[in-house]
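Re-run with default settings, no changes from the original entry. Doing this only to confirm the output is reproducible before filing.
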Amino acid sequence: MTVLLVVACALIDPDGRVLIAQRPEDKAMAGLWEFPGGKMEPDETPEATIIRELAEELSIDVTEACLAPLTFASHTYEAFHLLMPLYVCRKWEGTVSAREGQAVKWVRPVRLRDYAMPAADLPLISHLIDLV
């Protein structure tokens, strides 16, 4: 089975809310809500992946010093196994703007379970509740 390495980031605003984004209709698991991030490119570190993905998807600039690893997800889907480190970021430059047409929402961690999310993301919620 193929292991897919994807990196995600929980952006946390000054009010303690976490940003989630809705997967577009043309992608797998369309309509589900997730933490921003994406697949690592060859020769890319997890931190570099987050920095690149947040700039591409949300028009914000993040430095590596502002990223803190929190936990990870390890989940087997039908066609692949997902390994996904989750980083936390509380400081960035710019204003969050969805550049790929996805819906985005700021949500209190205790309300994250109100949104349909991929199975791999669900165990991450309790870590965010404990953190915030």
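Strands lie at 3-11, 18-22, 33-34, 37-39, 67-76, 81-89, 104-107. The longest strand covers residues 67-76.
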